[in-house]
Give the backbone structure.
Amino acid sequence: MTESDPRRSIPRTDYLLTLPEVVAAAQRLGQATVKAVIAEAQSAARDGRITPAEVAPTVIDRLGSRSASSLTPVLNATGIIVHTNLGRAPLSEAAQQAVADAAGYVDVEMDLATGKRSKRGTGVKQALLRTCPAAEDAVIVNNGAAALLLAVTALRADHSSARGHRAGPSTAQGPQVDVPVARSVDAEEIIVSRGELIEIGAGFRLTDLMTTTGARLHEVGTTNRTHLTDYANAIGPESANLLKVHTSNFRVEGFTSSVEVSELRGLADEHNLPLIVDLGSGLFTHDDALPDEPDVDAALRAGADVVIVSGDKLLGGPQAGLVLGRTEAVQRIATHPLARAMRTDKLTLAALEATITHTGNPVHDALHIDLDELRRRTETLAEVVGATVVAHDGRVGGGGAPGVPLPGWAIELPEDCAAALRTDDPAIVTRVHQGRCLVDLRCVPAGDDERIAAAITRVLTGGDDVHVDTVTHTVGSNLLGDHD
Ligand SMILES: *Cc1c(COP(=O)(O)O)cnc(C)c1O
């Protein structure tokens, strides 16, 4: 580097750390984050991407917009309610407040009246049982996958009377002396319909999860049709339990048949097998908006020993796995050693209880949105930014009700707006479909419409790579009647 090299004038770290904005940011974000941002800007100046004079303003600007977490809040303008890539269910205000309240010290395992230790999660459990009277007991773990793993592990038929003692998976307390086992636990079979063995996203397969327990899957029936006799024929001395899984993210149509929970109950009783129903989605009671989506209440009344539910799907709460059902079955699950490894934290318990006890949450609201209101908001947005309104179906998403359209509207923009909006502040995620960028307000809080309009206007007028002239400056009203 020569005397005259402009890189010599790149501001030094110790100087930058004294700037008032940087000092303030360090309090919020921590010294390590601030130093990393400084190093980035210095490096950009060294490479000539910015001038030395731009280093300090760049650092201040980046720190100003940075939050303590690397997660960026997003406006979901896709029309997909339970969007897995966007964190599934947004929490209600009550749940958010409950999380904030529980963030410090909290009486999660202390009875404040006596000062003695209390049981974690009692409040949320009681709330669950009040909401779902068909359940006698409940246990909460980290997510639906954990709940399923725990249920198929803990609920295995007790064949001990026929074979002497069985090496159960649960006892880790010392050597078991009296174990004349006829076969190892690995030989046990989970009986499940071939049509219900789902992959739930990102390559995650329920089949792989369940076989990690050491059990084998005994698949019955075919992809499209499974009958009660298929289950009956599969039952033998190796059978551990009967499992029914809700095919949450796909639908088999045409020549299909599956076996109802009530029919499986008969079989389970006959052979003394636990009956586990993995519902995934999380509707507690029937919802007319999703006529074919099974609910917890119905599955329990139909005879499931336990039902498994995901907290952040249609229930609209935090990530959690709920197991609801008969006392004896739930207790076996709750007291299994694996349950401790899947224990939920206080923030989840707080958010879940608030979700259950307060009616209404963003997932519920988006599902039951007032269509006149959605249409009015969409038309207003279209007018403000000068775009066309088109009919657009929203979706429940990864949460359930596969293939069920949720009629509504969107505004249509050129496809390249999508990337610009996604990287804007606020970040807006739209739906890119058939060469168009569609903005659906179903999952956008009404109070954010103006921010969306401002961002779209910015992108349409300011972006180099976006061509305003490709936007049709008409408000298409002919399409609006479609869903009325
Ligand atoms: C989503 C889902 C799961 C997994 O639940 P997570 O909460 O995502 O772990 C398990 N089973 C079914 C049927 C599901 O739909």
Observations:
- Residues 143-145, 148, 200, 245-246, 248, 278, 280, 310, 321 surround pyridoxal-5'-phosphate (CB under 6 Å).
- The chain has three domains: 6-65, 74-89+364-483, 93-159+182-358.
- Residues 74-89+364-483 form a domain with the Aspartate Aminotransferase, domain 1 fold (CATH 3.90.1150.180).
